[in-house]
């Protein structure tokens, strides 16, 4: 009937969604389609339930501002005076820089994950390091005492994504962890692994932990440290994709939770980061407490300890199908 013609399917969701900068092409054509693919880089944003689009826009604004502050002219177009003589090396470097510039003009794009309270911000500019950017952003918010967000609650950088199977995860983890732990001038450091698995029952947490510890231990004398590790390996599995990153100052920056960072920044300087003020549970995650039993065959330094449980908040995702874990160290020291 002429009066019942369908309007553009891409406009589903009402007028508010039309203003969103969400780039989710698969979702337009495949019901329940997952727009995140392997070899992507970006930031996982935890946010208020039902405000995923707003959180995506808010995160893009904040990440854009801080990337410009961090990288400055490096992200601007490379201009060369044609009248000046240009060496072959300079010409090659200029061409490489031009190739790395995002072709679409968008450095950050918001992708809905189909999971409540979770948005993925893809970084399309290879010159931007997700871990470095998130650390810079949160450190500045911590020192300035400004919250700057209304919907976003947690920023987790993602160095690279992989299909959620052990062989693909191992290949990507080898590249990511090699960069952070196996550099030529890399000194011995301490680390722990924090896995989180949602909407996936095929990835075995214990195997994942052992594999990551084994990769770290391939070079150097790095050690597992539960209390105050220098680096934390974050591994999140959402549906069919695994997200991997390595972060610094994880406890100081309150598990990269902006609300907790803001609350910490309001305390007297002598109390910040002290034992008196332990990180609060993330307000966007519901986790169960985990306790790993003592392995009688392992040495004392490789014992697993009970870990701190994270409690859910009012706006936290509460999906009974989510398989989430607390913070644990691998079952063996990576030495």
CATH topology: VC0802-like
Query: What count of helical segments does DSSP give?
Result: 8
**The CATH C-level class name:** Alpha Beta
Helix content: 25-40%
Q: What would the principal axes of the Cα set say about the shape?
A: globular
How far is the first residue's CA from the last residue's CA? Answer: 72 Å
Q: Overall pLDDT, averaged?
A: 77
Structural class: alpha+beta
Order the strands across the largest sheet as they lie in space: 5-9-8-6-7
Strand fraction equals 15-25%
Question: C-alpha Rg, in Å?
Answer: 21 Å
Number of domains: 1
- Compressed to H and E, one letter per element, the order equals HHEHHEEHEEHEHEEEH
In short:
The protein has eight helices and nine strands. By secondary structure, the protein is of the alpha+beta class. The protein has one domain: VC0802-like (2-Layer Sandwich).
